[in-house]
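About this split. The held-out portion is used to measure sequence recovery: a designer receives only the structure tokens and must propose an amino acid at every position. Recovery is the fraction of positions where the proposal matches the reference. Here is one held-out target exactly as it appears in the evaluation file.
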């Protein structure tokens, strides 16, 4: 290994672009032949450290990265300072509510509240609140947008207040598209500028986003990943992302995708392969000659699924394909020139023949990728498309099918939805071609199938119309319903009457099919526990079939009135047909012009927003309430204590289980609470729309009918057993009783606890329930971080032990030795279980804490007390 002199030499090179001279971090000049051996993601972290750190901190970061080369892993920490933050409306709302509450706390402490401001640019995209209320009609998008604005007007006024009161916060209003598509088409520059010591530097565009699918931007070479809203708050206020230098999994791609397959099939294949080797938080980087055969749109699909395969990133380095994408979406030539110059000179340009050092390598021959779906309950459960019926019977058994009008496994929802598979025009063009052939053959979708098309970008209207496919899609029920996450996030709207009736009388078992990224039970709709992820054209095929259990490799999609059977092969387009229509249908000018038109939403600009430095809370509001944890009085939850188990859970508990986002059921404790406050039981909106109101969200915690509490598997939904009394009661009421009596509570869980969305309310809800620690077999990365952000200690069981084996009961007590001064990253924590029958057993857990910064946050009680203390400190010292 080549040694690096310390102190480090000046790290700047010079780039001359036009009449402008830029400084940049010249990694090849500093690190020489060492640099190509590093994964590109680590080169980007190294560039960031060289530019933002100095002295011993910079030397330590460099030594850590170079030391990584020897073993492909490291325990050293590295700071990462992104250039911007990306949020959506249902993660930004609680984050901005926290900031508003922190401003109140500062004002009450005698400090000017306006001193609390983000130090980075924050882009908020309002995309998570659009519901599919109207479909199969040409004005569906307009009507759904009007409903969205009416339902969320109070929350949207709050967002407009935040954009006025807080420096650097910019809101992209409803109708402008999905945040990750907006990031690809509008926000990402790939190369950007920074002023350091009065000199202009050209630097890589980097970000963090409060959505787990932020890595979609990795598809065009921008390093970014998803974090919880709590971690984003630390970055917004000047603290770096501190992390262990990551393990990097290299995925070597060879060959070329065969005819008839798509990026969706590759993404699902990668998800399966990486989950099979236990990826959990590592960075993933794609390399090899197969990368060069993929378009930027195809790369973005694969990168988008990073959280589904357990990774922090799914990175594709910058190359000529990246430049092609920038041109295709209307970026100026001067920017494109700067991107190429920076990434080539800085040693960040993709070399298809280079094989860097990786922690582990997975190989995928693109030529072996086949037409696939995933499900019916997890995105990593890969299936040939012909095996949906076998998978349904395996997980749910053969249903008692008594319906006279529906198949046993009717397709209830067929949704072309989500950033994952609607940001690439080729995917929508392919779906449109299936619709065109179906229309020409006179095929129709049955009335029990709820169809919808929600592209990530309003530019889709232009290129689908220009390609002549809009009418074809509408003819088979796929009118555009709006530009937002819709069904993928659970905003699927009401089910068709035949499906609702079948669920009520249990005469059939409905299934969802969607071009999204997640199919957890209850995710798409609270009454649907089964769903398949697939490409947009395959969604249309299953919508036409009407049954999710058909083997479409042999069975006809439909039989025409004249008795002619129509098979999938009769509908499926060729790659040449798709490519030809993409070329003729898309124009570089579409993307900026469509976005600009959508941004001029009169319903948005007409909202009256407060102008004050502090937000004027309405005590009668059921949407926005000042949260109790945004306080200077919050203390640490660490300590040596005994606790009762509030919940004991198994494997694969998702953040949807912990804090649902979908529609609020009319008959639920949460609905009763809202109705008592004056809300209409028939118009309660979604859980996600209430994330600004802690009183609603704490009652919503663990509200999922598929969640099993192992304290007693027969408990009603969202109930637990109170240990001292043995009473069965709602989880929220049990937590209140424990708090009233001064008793601590903890939660036990199995593997992959907190998988799924980045929602910080999954951690906030647990904090408000009084949970001091979560002991799990393993944690998903973002949720683990969010727990720490709320001051909750995550602990890992020792190998071979899990909650089911322990058979903990409600009246057992769990002693945790977690004194603040003793906690260390990945350190031991002794846990002792005192059984109600007098027996005792002890094991040593591991603190699922990775950095010294996380230890500091736990000692301070979480992110919010830390920000308040940092903001208050200069004023306290001055006094």
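Reference sequence for scoring:
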């Amino acid at each position: 290994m080549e040694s690096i002199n310390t102190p480090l030499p000046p790290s700047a090179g010079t780039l001359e672009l036009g009449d402008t001279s830029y400084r940049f971090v010249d990694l090849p000049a500093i690190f020489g032949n060492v640099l190509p051996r590093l994964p590109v993601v680590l080169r980007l972290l190294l560039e960031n450290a060289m530019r933002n750190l100095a002295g011993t901190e910079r030397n330590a970061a460099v030594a850590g990265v170079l030391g990584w080369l020897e073993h492909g892993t490291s325990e050293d920490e590295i700071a990462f300072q992104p250039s911007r933050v990306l949020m959506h409306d249902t993660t930004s709302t609680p984050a901005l509510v926290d900031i508003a509450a922190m401003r109140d706390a500062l004002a009450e402490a005698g400090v000017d509240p306006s001193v609390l401001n983000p130090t980075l640019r924050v882009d908020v995209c309002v995309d998570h609140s659009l519901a599919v209320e109207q479909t199969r009609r040409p004005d569906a998008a307009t009507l759904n947008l009007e409903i969205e604005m009416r339902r969320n007007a109070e929350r949207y006024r709050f967002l407009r207040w935040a954009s006025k009161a807080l420096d650097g916060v910019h809101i992209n209003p409803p109708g402008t598209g999905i945040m990750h598509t907006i990031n690809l088409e509008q926000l990402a520059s790939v190369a950007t500028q920074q002023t350091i010591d009065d000199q202009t530097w050209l630097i890589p565009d980097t970000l963090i986003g409060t959505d787990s699918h932020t890595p979609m931007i990795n598809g065009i070479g921008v390093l970014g990943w998803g974090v919880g809203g709590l971690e984003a708050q630390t970055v917004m206020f000047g603290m770096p992302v501190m992390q262990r230098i990551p393990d990097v999994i290299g995925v070597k791609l060879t060959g070329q995708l065969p005819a008839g397959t798509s990026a969706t099939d590759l993404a699902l294949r990668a998800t399966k392969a990486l989950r099979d080797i236990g990826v959990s938080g590592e960075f993933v980087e794609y390399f090899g000659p197969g990368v060069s055969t993929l378009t930027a749109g195809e790369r973005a699909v694969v990168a988008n699924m990073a959280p589904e395969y357990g990774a922090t990133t799914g990175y594709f380095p910058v190359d000529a394909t990246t430049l092609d994408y920038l041109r295709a979406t209307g970026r100026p030539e001067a920017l494109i020139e700067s991107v190429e110059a920076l990434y080539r000179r800085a040693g960040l340009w993709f070399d298809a023949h280079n094989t860097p050092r990786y922690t582990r390598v997975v190989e995928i021959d693109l030529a072996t990728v086949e037409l696939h779906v995933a499900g019916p309950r997890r995105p990593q459960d890969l299936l040939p498309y012909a095996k949906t019926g076998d998978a349904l019977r395996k997980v749910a058994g053969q249903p008692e099918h008594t319906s006279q009008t529906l198949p046993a496994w009717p397709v209830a929802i067929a949704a072309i939805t989500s950033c994952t598979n609607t940001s690439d025009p080729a995917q929508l063009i392919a779906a449109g071609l299936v619709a065109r052939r179906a229309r020409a053959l006179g095929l129709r979708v049955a009335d029990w199938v709820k169809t919808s098309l929600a592209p990530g970008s309003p530019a889709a209207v232009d290129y689908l119309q220009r390609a002549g496919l809009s009418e074809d899609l509408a003819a088979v029920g796929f009118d555009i319903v709006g530009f937002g996450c819709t069904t993928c996030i659970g905003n699927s709207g009401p089910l068709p009457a035949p499906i609702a009736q079948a669920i009520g009388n249990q005469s059939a078992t409905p299934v969802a099919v969607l071009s999204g990224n997640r199919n957890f039970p209850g995710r798409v709709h609270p009454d649907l526990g089964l769903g398949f992820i697939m490409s947009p054209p395959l969604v249309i095929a299953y919508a036409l079939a009407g049954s999710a259990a058909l083997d479409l490799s042999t069975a006809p999609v439909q039989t025409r009135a004249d008795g002619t059977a129509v098979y999938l092969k009769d509908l499926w387009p060729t790659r040449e047909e798709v490519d030809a229509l993409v070329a003729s249908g898309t124009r570089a000018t579409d993307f900026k012009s469509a976005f600009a038109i959508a941004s001029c939403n009169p319903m948005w600009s007409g909202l009256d927003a407060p102008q004050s430095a502090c937000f004027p809370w309405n005590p009668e509001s059921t949407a926005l309430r000042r949260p109790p944890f945004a306080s200077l009085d919050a203390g640490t939850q660490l300590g040596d204590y005994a606790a009762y188990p509030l919940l004991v859970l198994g494997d694969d508990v998702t953040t949807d289980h912990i804090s649902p986002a979908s529609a609020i059921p009319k008959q639920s404790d949460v609905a009763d609470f809202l109705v008592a406050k004056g809300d209409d039981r028939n118009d309660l909106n979604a859980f996600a729309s209430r994330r600004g109101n802690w009183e609603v969200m704490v009652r919503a915690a663990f509200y999922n009918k598929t969640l099993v509490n192992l304290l007693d598997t027969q408990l009603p939904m969202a109930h637990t057993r109170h240990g001292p009394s043995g009473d069965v009661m709602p989880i929220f009421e049990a937590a209140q009783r424990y708090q009233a009596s001064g008793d601590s509570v903890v939660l036990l869980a199995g593997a992959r606890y907190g998988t799924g969305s980045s929602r910080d309310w999954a951690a906030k809800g647990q904090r408000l329930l009084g949970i001091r620690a979560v002991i799990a077999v393993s944690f998903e990365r973002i949720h683990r971080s969010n727990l720490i952000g709320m001051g909750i200690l995550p602990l890992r069981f020792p190998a071979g032990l899990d909650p089911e084996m322990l058979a903990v009961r409600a009246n057992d007590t769990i002693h945790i030795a977690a004194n603040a001064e003793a906690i260390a990253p990945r350190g031991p924590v002794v846990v002792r279980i005192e059984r109600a029958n007098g027996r005792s057993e002890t094991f040593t857990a591991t603190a699922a804490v990775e950095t010294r910064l996380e230890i500091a946050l736990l000692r301070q009680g979480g992110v919010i007390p830390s920000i308040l203390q940092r903001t208050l400190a200069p004023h306290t010292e001055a006094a």
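Annotator remark: DSSP finds 32 helices and 32 strands in the chain.
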